[in-house]
Amino acid sequence: MNVMEADREWMYEGRIVNGMFSNKWGDKVDEFVAFALRHPECVNGGTAIRCPCTLVKCQNKKFLNVETVKVHLYKNGFVPDYYVWIYHGEKEVHQRCSRSVRVSVSETDQMVSDNMNHTTYHRMVCDAAGPEFNPDEEPNAEARNFYDMIRAGDKPLYEGNSKHTQLSAAVRMLEIKCRHKCSQAWFDDMSNFIQELLPPDNLMPLDFYSTKKLVRGLGLPVQVIHCCVNNCMIYWGDDSDLNSCKKCGHARYKQTVRGSGNRLYIRKLKVPYKKMHYFPITPRLQRLYASTATANEMRWHSEHHMEDGKMCHPSDAPAWKHFDGCFPDFSSEVRNVRLGLFADSFQPFGQSGQQYSLWPVVVTPYNLPPDLCMKEEFMFLTVLVPGPTNPKGKIDVFLQPLIAELKSLWGVGVQTYDISKRQNFQMRTALMWTINDFPAYSMMSGWSTAGMLACPHCMEDSDAFRLIKSGKQSWFDNHRKFLPINHPYRRNTKDFITNRKVTKQFPGVRSGDEILQDLNNRGLRKVMDVDAEVVNAAIFKTCGWNKRSIFWDLPYWREHLLRHNLDVMHIEKNVFDNIFNTVFNIPGKTKDTYKSRDELNKYCRRPQFAQNLVTSKYPDVPFVLNKSQKKDVLEWVKKLRFPDGYASNLGRCVDAKKLKMFGMKSHDCHVFMQRLLPIALREFLPNRIWEPLTEISLFFKELTSSSLTDEELRNLDEQIPVILCNLEKIFPPSFFDSMEHLPVHLAYEARIAGPVHYRWMYPPERYLRKIKHKIMNKAQVEGSISIGYIMDEAAKFASFYFKEGDPTLPLKEKQNEVYLDDIVDDDMFEIFKPPGKAIGAEGKRYLADNEYTAAHLYILMNCPEVQPFIDVFITEKRRQFPNLNDEVVNVVTEQEFPSWFEKYVCS
Fold this sequence. Notes:
This protein is of the alpha+beta class.
């Protein structure tokens, strides 16, 4: 490609010579047009480029065909100061010959902004509308919403108010409503009250309906698709015109005539029995590039670099890099989007209300930096699977529109405008993996997570068996195959299954090609196929597959190293529950039951725990606490206090009468498992029992670190089989269900896909709680959520523009948080400027001597202003005693520095 001349003075000189258009100037215009056409990201429809003439309607805002652009330039000339062709594909900043300074892109943006005379809220409307929107054109029906908002952005709220316009007031009120989960009635009442405070001729919207009508242009589309009442199919695509289900024959619409005799009621509209809501992801992903608040952040994954080999983001992990290697054409455009998908159910009416299972399906982009990734602002509801019944394996029926859109975004992509670079590009999208709890894992992957083949990594290589007495599956002695081939546990015939040595090794996780070949060989059907139920049921009797997942329709799905994630959150909670309930011997929940004692010696040699035939009683086991020990632990838990926001009040979960804990949420179990369990049991259990419990606690703590190295994860992968084998030497076979087995695969998944906190269910669970709060009409659950979600999307986008200047993500202040900028006393020591404030009522008391000494020492040792004096003290001590090591120096400093410092300052 020939490089354009750096001298751009011709654009504004020599257009007309002796009253005639200059041929030389015309040749330059032809070169300009040819340059623009060589950059497809700046071309619309193959032949249209932005017109840079001086007309108000053009000025690099309107796309026209190239011949019309030439005519406009001949008649009107170029827009002033357009020396940098940023709207026509120029990425380098050229230098004008007549000037000694460079024109930066930011300066050009400011120039364009000044020329358009936009306010912050004008910019919001234009960003939401997209690059082809021209506020000076005559509006069509589709663009009317944006013109209404622009006019509202020009009108002050009332005469003399320079701070708020009609638009800014409306979006602020809407954002407050969504953020605080207020009802529509509250919004109407507050609007009426504000009307009483404002002058009579104000333009404040009168109610929620008026506000919603004004800002409706900020909302994104939603599709309502009719479904079979039995979840057999959706009336979509080629089936959109059917009036009955092609599988079960059930009618699509409710009866048009109701009643009997003389009282007949005829419906004017066809009402479907069931309908789902689909929120297309394309416009939602495009909006991430429509605002400067998020457009730059979407390239973070390619611009950051690993430090010291630590994985802090999925883009650092082998799975991401493997995908880049398989599809270099996709990875070459860093603005292409990588998505994660999660689905889970919730009860809209609570546990005691009507049984209603609602399944939202949500996607989230992984391009973002760690402080934004997996945050609720960037979680997009895509499918709302209607209740009241659980779709189970038929969830693929409702995922059809999403998979079709993902296939289109992968194969063709969509032209998207990147406002940060002011250019169009073809955005493509890839789904990296799904995130679900273990039952939903089966629904998404097609591999059954129930029974003796429940492990999706071991598959048919599982060694699970059914217990004789209880009839439950057990994964006892299922972990020695993961040990090194010469490990002594492999030859142990006493502590595991009697007289059994283990020589086989775990063959490894199957690749996508191997799994797909297995599915094809077995002839599994997708649930949408007419004969799927019969064919898949017959195949399921011989293997763990119950369907062919719809995700295999994605052309790149087979290349992923990890397609479905094991959820660490639920696995950790289940492991903790089993340990805690067994150690505390909670009735109905402990794994140490009379049935487990009866079958214990049928599998391993532990005669000391068998039933006494004389007394018919069972002896106590060393891993169960007695009554006084339980009381001590629970009293300790009840008095615990945590930093604000670190954990909930575990004291409320203590039942001192029944000596147990109840109502613990997943995060409560997370904190107890990783932080409290080793401390709580240290004094009460023998070392041979306490140490394996501490090791499993530390395993989860290290696994869930925010940054991980490959070496650390390989060590965890080697340690976890030994830890599980040590637990098998303690607890009975009934203790080891599938949840106690799955930790053996967690370190492998983290090594392949990166840090756990990008792939567990904590953020999705919190997001589902937010969706649940949008249900204002319990008679129309799905519709209520849909309306609330659309309003919430508009409010979140508007919140980027609340502050003057460039759009920014709103800063969320945490509860009880105080920023140092709020503290005006410059003479205050840094240690007394904590980012927080006291909780509860103020109280005073005298410190004991030891407390006073400890507080005094803490302040001195942690105050930056005192650090130079500490250095002087240590230097003197090392000069007096040259052979002191660092440990002794630290002890001497703690003991002698306070008194030395007092004498030093006073002297």
